Amino acid sequence: ESGQGGYLWYLKSSGDTRSRFNDYMEMSLVEAEKAAVSGTATANSDVGVAGSEGLFSAIENRGIIATNLLDAAGSEGLTDFDSLLAELDKQGAIEENMLYLNRSANLIFDDILADVSVGSQGGTAYGVFENSEDMALNLGFTGFRRGSYDFYKTDWKYLNDSSTRGMIGDIKGVLIPAGTSSVYDQQVGANVRKPFLHVRYRAGQADDRKLKSWVTGSVGGPTSSNIDKMEINYLSERCLVVQAANNFVLIK
What we know:
The chain is α+β, with helices and mostly antiparallel strands. The chain has helices at about 10-30, 55-60, 75-90, 105-115, 155-160; strands at about 65, 95-100, 145, 150-155, 175, 180-185, 190-195, 195-200, 210-215, 230-235, 240, 250. It starts with 11 loop residues before the first helix and ends with a strand. Residues about 120-130 have low confidence and may be disordered.
């Protein structure tokens, strides 16, 4: 299941559970929010639950919120987008940016760019995409330059899937700056370069908590209890770092 060659025996339920756990962890990095009031310690827990700051929450708290962007195509949509560029100028003015959009916002973007790129004879002139009569017309844009900024856009399945954000439909997309920035790392004691968006996890010489798993019970390995079953435990201690969040944009 993990890509090895040949025929192998494996526990199907274990493989499915691991995949689900990885899905939940990835989703938590996007959706997690800090708890309004941290939970209190109980007999089964030494600490309360403080929550974590996911991508959406970080941009809501420290980034730019665009509520009228990609509502219309044509010159009106381009004017709205130019107003966003003026806001980016006030921040870090990072040249390269990624746009992760839902389907409707992505199509509106294509329409906006197509209106700008209309040929003089009424045909479609998409420049570097080299459309010709011998190939299917490419009506989608993957990258463009506006002002001093380069943008690269793509569909984000997470915003289209009805089992995740697709059913809610409250978020159209996010703009994420590309590249790295210099920050002071307290553990290293020096300035280091880190991507604007990256994941950190707790690890030491004896324990790595990026993804830790162990088996308990009396079946399937070393006997660790008198319970006649096998339980597979998964643990992860990680968080998403949204660095320089004032350069991120949440499109709602």
